[in-house]
Structures are given as C-alpha cells and as structure tokens.
Design brief:
The chain has 2 domains: about 150 residues, Creatinase/prolidase N-terminal domain (Creatine Amidinohydrolase, Chain A, domain 1); about 220 residues, Alpha-Beta Complex (Creatine Amidinohydrolase). It has 10 helices and 21 strands. Helix 7 packs across helix 8. It is globular and about 70 Å long.
Length: about 375
C-alpha cells in the first residue's frame, strides 16, 4: 500500500480546513496531530502550516533532523517544505543540517509573533504555558476541529487499519493454536507481540493485555507472571500499529469444558450485538452506549459495566468519537470505532468482548471477524 498517499491526503485536508476558516497559519504541537499530518511522531517538534505561502515548516531536535527530512521530502511535490533543527544550547553540527537558534518555546513564539505582525489568524492546537500571555485571545483553538477531521477516515486509512486488524487476528490465532496452558500471561503477551511483528506490524498499538481469572477483573490489567492452567478464563486485549495507524480487539479464551462463565459471556455478547444494531450514519453515540447498558441491566449486570462503550481508533488508539453516556458525538460515514461492553467482578474475573467496526450508511462493517470466544 502506498502510505505516502494517505498523508498527502491528510495534508490537503488540513489546507482545505485552514482556508475555510480563513487561517493564515497553523501551529500544530500535539504529537498525534503531527503524526496524522506527516507520518512523523517526534517528541518536542513543531509543525507549522503556512497557509498563505502553501508551505510547511517542521522544527525538530537536531538528533531527529535527518529522519524528519527524509520523511517530509516525500510530500515536496505538493508543497514547499523546510526542515529545521532547533537548539537549546549552542553546538556544532554538520553543514547539511539547517538550524534555528533557540529552543522549543522560541520557535512557537517566533511563528506566532510573525502571525500577529502580518495581521493573520493563527490556529493552535496546544498553547504552551510560556506563551499564554502573548497569545491571549489572538488565536483560534483548532484542537477539536483537528480531532473531527481525524475522526472521519479516508478509504486508504481504513485499509491500513484493516491490515493492522488482520495482523492482530492472525497473531492471536497462531498463539492459541500453539497452546497457552503452562505459559504465563507475560509470555503469552510476548508471543502475540512477536507474531504481530512477524506478520508485518511496526509495533504494538498499546501494552497488550493478557489477564486471567481475578486479574481479568481489572479493565486495564497488567499481564502478570501467573501461569495459565486448565479451567482458567483469559481476557486478551490486543492491537497492532502500521504506519501510525492502530487496531484494537478483545477476545475471551475459555476451556472447552468451562461452563461457569457462559451466562456472563452470553450477556456481554448480547450487549455487543444490540449496540452494533444501532450503529449507522447519524446515530447518537450516547444512545448506542445506552442500548448496551440496558441489555446488561436486563440481566442484572449493568452496575458491573464500569467504563464507556467504545472510542474512535486511528493514529491514536483512543480518539474521537466517544461512545459514552455523556458523548455529544454523532456517527458519520467512515468513522472507525470500537464497541466493547464489559463486566468486572473484583476478586473473581472479568468479561469484555471488543469489535472494531467501520461506520457505514446502513450499519457497521466489522473488521474483527474472528470468533469472539476462543477455546483451548
């Protein structure tokens, strides 16, 4: 897949947004927003979108300069790009590194003051504490607008998320086929991680969760040294990352002869199915969350569902839209969201099943196609 095309499209969307809002410049400081726009995630960098000059400036620490320049030159056909290294202290560097004398805050100040002097509207997604006095009300907060742009995926972005999902499923199937009895939660998580990379992932989307019995009662459990034994219930929450795009999926693993948790798993799966029936373009995220809770309430389990129903997935594992009781989000075509009802019993076990879906006109397209409950 030509991933360059994804980021070229994202850059074009940023320019279209800026022109619509009559912005002369955008200063993007959030790492995830930078990654969405450029395929670069470098801590401490400053991305400047100069709308009037149809150009891009990327300030980065010197040790990341060459990597940044190599990535950014891929987009030079559509706009002028300048990469600069900034310094908090004076050092000698090779001649092919273009430099800016000053630190991170100096970069932001320079670019914002340039906007003021030219009487341009400047968009900022983050305002550093050090420049709040300068900025005051003379800027446009673009944080939520960029989140909304990111929430609606292009077909190419969806293809990349689908590929990451397929890799996760393939890795989990491989580990289950090899057997989990006698291995610790940590080792199983490590094996899944290995196979995800083996099958093409860049890395894990997040620290993988392999949690059995009472450990599975923690929604964000840390995989422990406990060895999986026959009869254990195991919750596995995994995701892969490819070119900044992530997947997310949770599956339950049970013994073929285990029946004690079946009522709870059936209730959670029913809750998931009822929620999926409500997913379509124009649906209110809060109402989808409500349907899942009502289903669990019917089984007397609603009070054990202690988190929101789901979230958007893209360059971040958790991004807009939010599927929760307080969410104001309305689902739009090509949003990618998780649906993950769960119930948790402290000191006993937890059950969570999570599907990743694409919002389409008449309903969800489920990317996580593997069985929801696997047996060992």
């Amino acid at each position: 897949m030509d991933t360059v095309r994804i980021f070229i499209n994202n850059i074009k969307r940023i320019f279209s947004y800026a022109e619509e809002k009559r912005l002369g410049k955008m200063i993007i400081l959030d790492e995830s927003n930078q990654a969405w726009a450029t395929n670069l995630r470098i801590r401490g960098s400053v991305l400047v979108i100069d709308v009037n000059n149809r150009s891009l400036r990327y300030y980065t620490p010197a040790l990341e300069y060459w990597r940044a320049e190599e990535i950014l030159k891929r987009y030079s056909d559509i706009l002028s790009i300048e990469t600069l290294a900034y310094f908090r202290y004076k050092i000698d560097v090779p001649e092919d590194i273009r430099t800016f004398e000053g630190g991170y805050v100096d970069v932001v100040k320079k670019e914002f003051i340039d906007c003021l002097e030219k009487n341009l509207i400047c968009g900022l997604d983050i305002v550093p504490q050090e420049i709040k006095e300068i900025v005051q009300e003379k800027y446009k907060d673009i944080k939520e607008d960029i989140s909304s742009l990111r929430a609606i995926k292009s077909n190419e972005e969806i293809s990349l998320i689908t590929r990451a999902t397929d890799i996760s499923m393939k890795a989990l199937e491989k580990v289950i086929d090899e057997g989990i009895i006698g291995y610790s939660e940590k080792i199983i998580a490590g094996k899944i991680s290995y196979y995800m990379r083996f099958f093409g992932a860049d890395q894990e989307a997040f620290p993988l969760i392999v949690a059995s019995n009472e450990n599975s009662a923690y929604p964000h459990a840390n995989s422990s040294s406990k060895t999986i034994e026959l009869g254990d219930i195991v919750l596995i929450d995994i995701g892969a990352k490819i070119s900044e795009y992530n997947s997310d999926m949770t599956r339950m693993i049970l013994s073929k002869n285990s029946f004690r948790e079946k009522h709870y798993i059936d209730a959670v799966e029913e809750s998931l199915n009822k929620a999926l029936e409500k997913i379509e373009v124009g649906a209110k995220a809060s109402e989808i969350d409500a349907v899942a809770r009502e289903t669990l309430n019917k089984h007397g389990l609603g009070k054990f569902f202690i988190h929101s129903l789901g979230h958007g997935v893209g360059v971040d594992v958790h991004e807009k839209p939010a599927l929760s009781s307080t969410s104001k989000d309305i689902l739009e075509k090509n949003m990618v969201v998780t649906v993950e009802p769960g119930i948790y019993f402290r000191g006993r076990f937890g059950v969570r099943i999570e599907d990743l879906v694409v919002v389409e006109e008449r309903g969800p397209r489920v990317l996580t196609s593997m069985k929801r409950v696997l047996e060992y």
